[in-house]
Design a protein that fits this description.
34% of the residues lie in helices and 21% in strands. The chain has 16 helices and 22 strands. It has helices spanning 49-67, 109-116, 121-128, 137-147, 151-156, 165-173, 186-189, 204-210, 245-252, 311-319, 329-334, 374-400, 417-427, 439-451, 458-462, 477-494, and strands at residues 5-11, 15-21, 27-34, 46-47, 74-81, 87-90, 100-101, 160-163, 183-185, 195-196, 201-202, 219-221, 239-244, 261-265, 269-276, 287-292, 300-307, 344-346, 364-366, 407-410, 431-434, 467-471. The strands form seven sheets. It has a seven-stranded mixed sheet with strand order 16-17-15-14-20-21-22. A five-stranded mixed sheet has the order 3-2-1-5-13, sandwiched between helices. Helix 10 (311-319) packs antiparallel against helix 12 (374-400) and helix 12 (374-400) crosses helix 13 (417-427).
């Protein structure tokens, strides 16, 4: 019998990857292309959606060739994507109306402030689970409709389509202008501010509030479901799953039970806590979001804490301050000192995300004295990620009624052992890293394989999870409490920096 495999397309912020996995969830091959980052104005971040699609077309045969297999051996295809990044395109030609607006982009700040003053603004978060913020896709679509002449009229006639990146890729994979499927999944739809987080359908009240024509929106489907067959890139292969990247990581970490949580440490960091089929309303600055939905079953929900700046703080330390030559060097430099020397860095470069949601905040370095060396600064950089994690975990414990007992971690920063130990210390819980490091891609593959019966059930997926590393808390509680209080004082210094109005 010919061996079968599952392929994941991981469409990320800086690159797109195609990864082939086998039945044990082990990586067989990977192919990756970066795409250009466009910064036309301060605070604006854009991608060329056509470049990303062309990359997928080039990556597909490369990943299969490196695995030594053909498309006929692929049981299913799953997609994980950068969330909130928004693209609008012409239904007839398949050409985007402009560059995609990336999740990091803050051009909608004035629009969001204006929307906050509109009647009905107070009801938005209750219906969609998200606070009014520049972070989400709905306001981006509204901005594009407002700033492109004639676009709104075309959208109302159904001539222009809206999507996040998985919608764009599925449409192109399944035929594009020649009958491509215009679909999304519940996890990505839950990041638009346009979906009712309870009914899992577009909400007329939200569409009216944001001024988004229903005719441009994709059909919402479960995350683990039939999304059609590919006619391009992977011809004939069934598309069995689509998930936002952070939900895909939760799935890849097999956090299927209420109370299980993971944190992905990348450019930013995203901590998701599975709350089961119960939607837990956030009262502590978190996002109430959809974790995943398997076709025919109720949706699983999550609380999410989104941290804007973690890995990118290390990049800033390397590229802007040039105090290290490569990112891994920061651990070596931080180990040259025993502590932070009283120095704290709060990286509110584009405001503070969870649990504060203060867009006017800006970064600070506090506690500087002539004693401070670049080693202390390096340590403060790493500690900033840990303390931001602690703020989110405290909010989750208070909000969910579930006490975190273990944190599963993934992402590039988990290679930093000093950071992982410090996170365990400040959370006072074990931190564990899985053997499989590509958890976003693996989650998309798991979901797709589950949809077509390649894997039988969630228990089968759990059996593939193996621990590669563990860090146990070892910090004196008095030191932990004192340092956390100092961190919170530092955060206070960031607030109110940008004056508006």
């Amino acid at each position: 019998m010919t061996e079968r495999f599952v392929v994941a397309i991981d469409q990320g912020t800086t690159s797109t990857r195609c990864i082939v996995f086998d039945r044990r969830g082990q990586l067989v091959s990977v192919a990756q292309y970066e795409h250009k980052q466009h910064f036309p104005r301060p605070g604006w971040v854009e991608h060329d959606a056509m470049e990303i699609w062309r990359n997928v077309e080039r990556l597909a045969p490369l990943a299969l060739r490196r695995a030594g297999i053909t498309a006929e051996q692929v049981a299913a295809l799953g997609i994980a994507n950068q969330r909130e990044t928004t693209v609008l395109w012409d239904r007839r030609t398949g050409v985007p109306v402009g560059h995609a607006i990336v999740w990091q982009d803050t051009r909608t700040d004035e629009l969001v402030r204006a929307l906050e003053r509109e009647p009905g603004a107070d009801a938005v978060q209750h219906r969609c689970g998200l606070p009014l913020a520049t972070y989400f896709a709905g306001p981006r679509a509204r901005w594009m409709l407002d700033h492109t002449p004639g676009l709104r009229e075309r959208a109302e006639r159904g001539e222009v389509l809206f999507g996040t990146m998985e919608t764009w890729l599925i449409w192109n994979l399944t035929g594009g202008p020649a009958g491509g499927s215009h679909v999304t999944d519940v996890t990505n739809a839950s990041r638009t501010m346009l979906m009712d987080v309870r009914t899992l359908d577009w909400a007329d009240e939200l569409l009216s509030f944001f001024g988004i024509p229903r005719a441009m929106l994709p059909e919402i489907r479960p995350s683990v479901a039939a999304f059609g067959r590919a006619t391009a890139a992977f011809p004939g292969v069934r598309i069995g799953a689509a998930l936002g990247d952070q939900q895909a990581a939760l799935f890849g970490q097999t956090c299927f039970a209420p109370g299980e949580a993971k944190c992905t440490y990348g450019t930013g960091s995203f901590l998701l806590l599975n709350t089961g089929t119960e939607l837990v309303r956030s009262t502590h600055g978190l996002l109430s979001t959809v974790a995943y939905q398997i076709e025919g079953e109720p949706a699983a929900y999550a609380l999410e804490g989104s941290i804007a700046i973690t890995g990118s703080l290390v990049q800033w330390f390397r590229d802007q301050l040039t105090l290290i030559a490569s990112a891994p060097e920061i651990e070596t430099l931080a180990r040259t000192v025993a502590d932070n020397g009283g120095c704290y860095i709060v990286p509110a470069f584009s405001g503070l995300y969870a649990p504060h949601w203060r867009s006017e905040a800006r970064g600070v370095i506090v506690g500087l004295t002539s004693y401070i060396t670049k080693g202390h600064l390096a340590r403060a950089v790493l500690e900033a990620t840990a303390w931001q994690t602690r703020e989110v975990v405290d909010a989750m414990n208070a909000n969910s009624g579930l006490t975190l007992t273990t944190l599963k971690v993934d992402g590039g920063m988990t290679a930093d052992n000093l950071l992982m130990q410090f996170i365990a210390d400040v959370l006072d819980v074990p931190v564990v890293r899985p053997l499989a490091v590509e958890t976003v891609s693996l989650g998309a593959a798991y979901a797709a394989g589950l949809a077509v019966g390649y894997w039988p059930d969630l228990a089968g997926l759990r059996s593939n999870w193996h621990r590669a590393g563990q860090w146990l808390p070892a910090m004196d509680p008095a030191v932990r409490d004192r340092e956390y209080a100092n961190w919170q004082r530092a955060v206070e210094r960031t607030l109110g920096w940008i004056q508006t109005g």
